[in-house]
């Protein structure tokens, strides 16, 4: 039997580098296009980027390690509150605030991973919900620190590079967020291609085989929780800087569940899927909620059912498949 | 020759059921030992005890003179006790090359590095290419595992084990599920295993056992009923009764 060359991860390094650069350029272009096309919606678009970082962080845990979590907002909210509290206490440099958010997310990720990795399967999922609910309740009760149910408000970050104010139009915040997203995305691409990233993929597919190789799962997965926490925390900090408020919703089960829906929509285990899922979900939410604020979830639900039934690999997987079929057709048509 | 691996008076009971009872087996460097026994003899439990997946009820396991009875599965692998699986346990979306490189990187202590490219380690890639070539897997080295034949997947299990450079290798039915036309491939791969490596093979295919093993142990109903040369095993009355007899009647 003659088989076509396998379209697998074993593409030549040069080809995969070219694909990566094209991917990064596409994200940057799409981001800049948003800037020019929707100048009145930059605050919304910045929120999309902030949530995209959350969904990317969830992809690391769910998509690459195979650990289901419905508590990812715990990491996002930790970053948002840490940046908010720091900003209200005189730390206003935006880059520093992102780092503070990432650090808070990483520490929370360490704790969350330590607890969650004690269990497997359904109990693990329940633990993730318990953690985000606990943190939500703690943030609600510690009003002196977090503002309780009112949240934090009145943060005024310093101008970006000392020049660009985080103003009402949100231009600085958006471009700042886009830059952050690109940096994080490139870093994550490198991480998932590293030996560590390959072991995570292996753990998702067959933990017993990984242990037979002499590799302990726990430290690897815990490290991924820390990385995931840093990414989610940076996303939360970006949200805090851009909106200049931090509310309990950033630390909610609802946001965690939405993040998982966005990830499934876009496609698991593929960093592009996390971005596509976030953009599509939030765009639908934004547009449909404006038309009918009560029933927008119905449409999202229908969309999700359609995706799960007809495109189980998510939007990105389906695009990938379509591209493969198209290029195969081209190759056949060519000389 | 020195003993590299030994189990002494190893037992495992589940409730009142003695699944493994008072097993003592020692292996020297370069040994080729086959463990055989009818279904339900306790072979799987034995493998789980040896690899550290379940703790024994009594007895000890020694590797290179060290008592590893209390060590977990990962720690045993790191000390050089490596296994293959009866049903292939491979990563469907990865290539044979990636499997072998991962094993090499782990042996070198680099398997979980973040600041490195998995495909960027030239020395590991070269070594993986050598191992895969030895087993005739070069042509499929960069295909996804789901796309390669089952016999090749079995060979890949052996390739991974070779990359781990074990001191003791436990082959759990290396020819299980392989079409008989491909069995010679497995046999040839086993012949190429390093001469100094101690190999314990658990296998149903008696032809393979007789060609590969220089010593045979027979497990029946959780107990060792025979230890000796392959040539003698068929003549042993207890063995015929417990094992070969049932095989003969099975009309194989």
TrEMBL record, chain B:
Residues 5-246 form the ABC transporter domain. Keywords: ATP-binding, Nucleotide-binding, Transport. The keyword Nucleotide-binding applies. PROSITE patterns: ABC_TRANSPORTER_1 (PS00211), ABC_TRANSPORTER_2 (PS50893). It holds the Pfam family BCA_ABC_TP_C. GO terms for cellular component: plasma membrane. The keyword Ribosomal protein does not apply. GO terms for molecular function: ATP binding; ATP hydrolysis activity. PANTHER family: ABC TRANSPORTER ATP-BINDING PROTEIN, CONSERVED COMPONENT OF ABC TRANSPORTER FOR NATURAL AMINO ACIDS-RELATED. Belongs to the ABC transporter superfamily. This is ABC transporter ATP-binding protein. It comes from Bosea spartocytisi.
């Amino acid at each position: 039997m003659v088989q076509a060359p396998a379209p697998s991860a074993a593409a030549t390094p040069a080809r995969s580098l070219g694909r990566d650069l094209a991917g990064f350029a596409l994200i940057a272009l799409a981001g800049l296009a948003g800037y020019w096309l929707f100048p009145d919606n930059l605050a919304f678009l910045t929120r999309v980027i902030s949530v995209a970082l959350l969904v990317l962080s969830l992809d690391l845990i769910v998509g690459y390690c195979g650990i289901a979590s419905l508590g990812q907002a715990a990491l996002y909210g930790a970053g948002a509150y840490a940046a908010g509290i720091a900003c209200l206490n005189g730390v206003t440099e935006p880059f520093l605030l992102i780092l503070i958010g990432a650090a808070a997310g990483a520490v929370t990720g360490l704790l969350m991973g330590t607890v969650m990795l004690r269990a497997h399967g359904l109990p693990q999922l329940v633990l993730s919900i318990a953690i985000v609910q606990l943190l939500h309740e703690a943030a609600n009760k510690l009003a002196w620190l977090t503002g309780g149910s009112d949240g934090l408000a009145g943060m005024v970050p310093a101008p970006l590079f000392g020049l660009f104010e985080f103003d009402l139009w949100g231009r600085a915040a958006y471009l700042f967020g886009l830059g952050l997203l690109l940096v994080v995305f490139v870093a994550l691409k490198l991480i998932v291609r590293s030996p560590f990233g390959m072991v995570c993929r292996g753990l998702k597919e067959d933990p017993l085989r990984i242990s037979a190789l002499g590799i302990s799962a726990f430290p690897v997965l815990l490290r991924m929780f820390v990385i995931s926490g840093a990414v989610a925390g940076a996303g939360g900090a970006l949200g805090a800087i851009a909106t200049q408020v931090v509310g309990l919703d950033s630390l909610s089960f609802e946001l965690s569940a939405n993040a998982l829906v966005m990830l499934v929509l876009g496609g698991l285990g593929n960093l592009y899927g996390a971005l596509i899922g976030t953009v599509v979900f939030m765009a639908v939410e934004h547009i449909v909620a404006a038309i009918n604020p009560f029933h927008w979830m119905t449409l999202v639900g229908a969309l999700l059912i359609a995706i799960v039934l007809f495109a189980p690999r998510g939007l990105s997987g389906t695009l990938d498949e379509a591209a493969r079929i198209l290029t195969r057709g081209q190759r056949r048509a060519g000389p | 020759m020195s003993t590299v691996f030994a189990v002494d008076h190893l037992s495992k009971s589940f409730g009142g059921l003695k699944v493994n009872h008072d097993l003592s087996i020692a292996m020297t460097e370069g040994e080729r030992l086959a463990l055989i026994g009818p279904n339900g003899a306790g072979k799987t439990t034995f493998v789980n005890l040896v690899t550290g997946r379940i703790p024994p009820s009594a007895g000890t396991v020694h590797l290179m003179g060290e008592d590893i009875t209390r060590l977990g599965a990962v720690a045993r692998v790191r000390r050089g006790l490596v296994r293959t699986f009866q049903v292939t346990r491979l990563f469907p979306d990865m290539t044979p090359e990636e499997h072998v490189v991962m094993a090499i990187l782990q042996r070198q202590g680099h398997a979980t590095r973040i600041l490195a490219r998995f495909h960027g380690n030239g020395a590991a890639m070269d070594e993986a290419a050598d191992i895969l070539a030895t087993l005739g897997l070069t042509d499929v080295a960069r295909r996804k595992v789901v796309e390669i034949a089952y016999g090749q997947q079995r060979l890949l299990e052996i390739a991974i084990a070779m990359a781990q450079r074990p001191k003791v290798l436990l082959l759990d039915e290396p020819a299980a599920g392989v079409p008989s036309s491909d069995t010679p491939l497995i046999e040839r791969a086993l012949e190429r295993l390093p001469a100094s490596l101690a190999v314990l093979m658990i296998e149903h295919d008696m032809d393979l056992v007789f060609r590969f093993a220089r010593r045979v142990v027979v497990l029946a109903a959780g107990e060792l009923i025979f230890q000796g040369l392959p040539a003698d095993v068929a003549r042993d009355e207890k063995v015929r009764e417990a094992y070969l007899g049932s095989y003969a009647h099975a009309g194989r």
